[in-house]
Design brief:
Length: 342
């Protein structure tokens, strides 16, 4: 069903009780998740939280691998939050931002590949528990590269092996999938990517979903500059989400990099076209944002320069969904002010 037909439905409208797949209770999967719970830090664990959101918003997101990639702990935690939100008649149900963000990235990846006849490489930086290579048919002509910490990729590969062995109809949808063990906070990730078969001169879609704000200012800027430099070699598309400064204050120990004006920043790094959307905009709605009084609609109706909401004085915490592109034969007409992190 088209997500736009779902109205403001939340996951619990479709499934009141949490139904966990049998695979989560097998010995191998339990051992893998014990490693996650006991050994991973917050940044690595955020990959499982993202997968849990995709699993519990399954009425709008098709991700049959999300349950096993999320794990019992994160599925139960998010399910309890959703139940509480429903009980309290919350205008924003837990996970809705993640659902909209996922659908936005899915739609943009498909549109970009359709316009390039599907021949572009796709690089997922900080891929985490992303399973697009197994669920998006638009990737059938694309070489996909997943870049993340080696321990994340190892556990993910083991979980996927268990899932694929137990479910016949699941298979790789991408032309190829290469996992690249690298930390994008370091300076050697591009070298490792190229050693793994990435071709710098080939059209590329770079995906930075739910990751850039965990980096320091210098780390994030280095990643963005590295991608932006590719605009001088070939047609390059960046899909990324950015927090504004107010959003990072929600957890200053977790979130670091911000940009209040990413549509000004990115042209200074080599991108000639930048389109910015906010949750609830026509291309970032997906039938989940009809309530005019929900937080996201109230925010996007305010000028972006407004830092506190006039109704209650709360900080205007915004998430920007940004598509930027550039090519060797295009020129940049905008320059950006300097950016810094808190």
């Amino acid at each position: 069903m088209d997500p736009s037909e779902q109205g403001n439905a939340s996951p619990v409208d479709h499934e009141l009780e949490l139904k966990l797949p049998h695979l989560l209770f097998t010995k191998t999967v339990r051992e893998l998740y014990a490693k996650i719970v006991n050994e991973w830090d917050f940044l690595k664990k955020s990959a499982c939280q993202t997968a849990a959101g995709r699993a519990l918003w399954k009425h709008v997101i098709h991700d049959p691998l999300a349950d096993v990639l999320a794990g019992e702990t994160y599925l139960r935690n998010l399910h309890e939050k959703i139940k509480k939100d429903r009980h309290n008649n919350a205008r924003e149900i837990s996970g809705v931002i993640l659902a909209v963000r996922t659908l936005w990235f899915d739609s943009k990846i498909e549109a970009v590949l359709d316009s390039s006849a599907g021949a572009a490489q796709v690089v997922l930086l900080g891929a985490g528990m992303d399973s697009r290579a197994y669920r998006l048919s638009c990737l059938k002509e694309s070489d996909v590269f997943e870049v993340d910490f080696p321990e994340v990729l190892q556990v993910k590969a083991a979980l996927l092996e268990e899932a694929l062995e137990s479910t016949e109809h699941l298979r790789l949808m991408a032309k190829s999938l290469t996992r690249v063990a690298a930390d994008i906070r370091e300076n050697d990730w591009l070298e490792k990517l190229q050693i793994s078969g990435f071709v710098p001169e080939k059209n590329t879609v770079w995906v930075l979903e739910g990751i850039i704000y965990y980096l320091s200012n210098s780390q994030a800027m280095q990643v963005l500059k590295t991608v932006g430099e590719k605009c001088t070699l070939t047609h390059t598309v960046l899909l990324a989400d950015f927090m504004n400064k107010a959003s990072t204050t929600l957890s200053s120990s977790t979130f670091h990099f911000y940009s209040d004006w990413p549509d000004h920043l990115l042209p200074s790094l080599g991108f000639s076209h930048v389109k910015l959307s906010q949750i609830g905009d026509p291309d970032a709605h997906f039938g989940l944002m009809h309530d005019p009084l929900n937080l996201f609609n109230k925010l996007r109706n305010l000028p972006r320069s407004v830092e506190t909401h006039p109704d209650d004085g709360t900080p205007c915490c915004r998430l920007y969904l940004v598509q930027a592109s550039g090519s060797p034969n295009q020129t940049v007409s905008l320059k950006a002010p300097s950016q810094r992190s808190i």
